[in-house]
Amino acid sequence: MGDAFGSGFEGMDPDRAMFHMSNLSKKFARKYTDDTDMTFALAESIIHCGRIDPENIAEQFSLRCDLTRGYAIGTIKAVQALRAGLKWDEVARIVFENGSFGNGAAMRVSPVGLFYHHDLDGVRQSTIKQASITHVHPLGQWGAVMQACSVALAVIQDPKQRFRKEQMVISLREILWGGPIEYIKALNKIEEMLNQGKKLQAREVAQSLGNGVEAHFSVPSACYIAITCSPDFCDAIRAAISLGGDTDTIAGMVGAIVGAHVGEKGLPLEWIEQLEDGLRGRSFAKSLADRLFEIWWETHQTSSG
Question: Are 133 and 111 spatial neighbours (Cβ–Cβ below 8 Å)?
Fold first, then answer.
């Protein structure tokens, strides 16, 4: 949902995004972008395999990705390479020799955080596996880890209460320790901003944590906004959009975290009804979420029994 509502603001600076914020109150069909498209494909793979299988995820990307939905050139080339028969572990360096540190692996990762929410180390390992298809740079991979773990931590909190902010930061720091220092610095900044207790200022957040397509300049911003705004889903999406920049992805990541916290009942029905509902639209998304939960429940019951 955050992806679809945020896409119309992409590339704006914070002031312009705030100026056009009234567009959120207008009612029209909202189309999702590559962020949601890849999230669907990842969820379908988990449902099919009952686990993270990079080869099958790559197959789903090859079969399912609709390259007309705003894909970046790097991902387009990766998907085209998969369709041409290149192996899943050979495509990530096609465009970037040292790997991409963009937020593409993070934007799609929410199904991993949901499916492994009971095991943060499992979230970390599984996230890096799914990221490695398109992102082999540590910044790209660990940004996805930060996002997935934020989703996982959100699931287990009381949906009627605000996040336990300090504990969230501590848990994220523990799981990200040993990864790129950029994420530890970002968490330190988030902790500092939380301790100041002042109202969210879009330009300050954008300047301090970022609003770009780079994972380390977008995932921390999404986490901060989710932590400070949840359980109010609409306020969280507005705050994400107010940053400007890569608004569809940042709003999508914020929506994934806050949505994991509040659940379906905490989502605004008026916004849901505006989401496109074609072959792979909102009804498909709902059925996919239900199936993912069923597979998790079956797997969890089997392993605990």
Answer: no
